[in-house]
Design a protein that fits this description.
Elements lengths: L7 E7 H10 L13 E4 L2 H18 L7 E7 H6 L4 E4 L14 E4 L10 E6 L2 H8 L3 H7 L4 H24 L1 H11 L3
Length: 186
């Protein structure tokens, strides 16, 4: 794993699911729902909430298997440098703006190999899971800061897109021939 950065992105999951993720050396896009993506967030509190939701699902579907909530930390800048398609995302399924507290960044492809961008794997404290069971989403929403980290990461995304557009423009054959002709006064 690599060193933690200021552009960390988090993903909540469980130890049961983590076994498969690590065995495959890949975090896969969702195989269900209309949006085939990996849900990342700039806020650890939001990732903890979704790790707890995943654990509740695991406990329901496989009560005989022991599991626990964990948060994966990824290097957001590293994902961009490796050309992963990341974008700001807010699902309107519950109503416009209702999911903004998640501070979600969508990744539209599998993340692999993990050692290129995975920073850390940390367990979620049991009191946080107890909060989840008591339907205290507010505790997670409050711990997901005001979105400053997301705003900073979105600025990073915008800079990357502008840089990519500029590079694509410079690779254009018409532009290269135009530059070449001007260089030789043709």
């Amino acid at each position: 794993m690599i060193k933690r950065t200021t552009s960390s992105l988090y993903h909540g999951t469980t130890t049961l699911r983590l076994k498969r993720i690590m065995a495959e050396d890949r975090l896969r896009v969702s195989s269900t729902g209309t949006d085939r993506k990996i849900s990342l967030t700039t806020e650890r509190g939001a990732a903890e909430y979704f790790a707890c939701a995943a654990l509740a699902s695991d406990n329901h579907d496989r009560p005989d298997v022991k599991s626990g909530p964990v948060v994966l930390s990824f290097d957001g800048k590293g994902l961009l440098e490796l050309n992963y398609e990341l974008e700001e995302f807010s699902d309107s399924v519950w109503g416009l703006g209702k999911c903004d507290w998640e501070n979600e960044i969508a990744c539209w492809s599998d993340i692999t190999p993990l050692d290129a961008t995975l920073i850390d794997i940390e367990p979620v404290a049991d009191p946080r899971y107890q909060d989840f069971l008591k339907r205290r989403r507010g505790k997670f929403v409050r711990s997901a800061r005001t979105g400053r980290a997301k705003a900073d990461f979105v600025r990073l995304l915008q800079l990357r897109r502008a840089h990519d557009r500029e590079r694509a423009h410079l690779r254009s054959p018409l532009l290269r021939s135009s530059i070449s002709m001007r260089h030789w006064n043709l």
